[in-house]
Amino acid sequence: QQWGHFLLEQKRYPEALEHLKQAAEEEPNNLDVLLNLSMALIKTGHQYEAIALLFEIEKKDKWNPQAHYLLGTHFMGAGNLAKAQQHLQKALEEKPDFEDAAVNMALVLCEMGDTMEAVRRMRPLIRKAPDSARVNFFYGVILYRHGDYKEALSKYQKALSVEPEYMEARIGLGEVLLRLSRLEEAEAIFRDILAERADSIPCLYLMGLCLIRKADAAATPEEKQAADAEALHCFERVNALDPAHLDAQANRALMMGRIESTEALNQGFEEILDANPAEARPLIFYYWGKALEQIGEMALSESKLEQARREAPDIEAQMQGISI
User: Which segments of 197-242 does DSSP mark as H helices, in order?
Assistant: First the structure.
């Protein structure tokens, strides 16, 4: 059991899994063993087995904070925010100083739209752990969602001063620099990351957005053409890696409009409509309208935005602050 725990801490997850399975057979009622086994299962991609085990642990010890934390984290990833909140709250009731659970609760509140409460909950955590890369990073994520970009920037920078190779913080730093229109700095960060991880979907997507902004600010037609072409390539790479990435699909269609014609843009969005479920239609029409707006087709743009409003009257409120 101790060796399995050591391997888990060393991130040697497949080896840890084998040792912890053996330990669980020898000590089936040892909750520490079972919790470590559930973590090893999660880290090796055995999600369903891990969740089943965590529910078994909950039956044995209904207030086990680690079990509720792991269940809450699972439901966060699955998009079930109400269930995530429920389990994280139980973890914090039993162990109020549980930092990881408190951070995840703030993230859940942020995802539920209550960014003010999420920021409020992060403040005591950052006071208690000012040099934690993880706490600074997630505080940066929440501040970014709250619209406080300069403070988000400082938190990402702090996270990276503690852990320079923190990939998510590097991407976050690039994203907030892009939001602050510091395009050259953002582009440099994205290029460095892609030199290491050419298939990083979030970085490829953000690089595409950065290149659109670069094209808009280009001094010559040749520079604009080159930036547009590279942006298109980024979105095509994202779609090749993740065909369901709707934002990349929409931006690819936008780029076809910028590079080729309005007809190419419209054809791209027709293909997106055909490839996605009916519930995505309002968002697709919204993106379609915004894309047409960007290439100056104002009458066509308004017709698509009106279609989006007919199918989802609150679409513009939902998309406030978000642009293609």
Answer: 201-216, 221-241
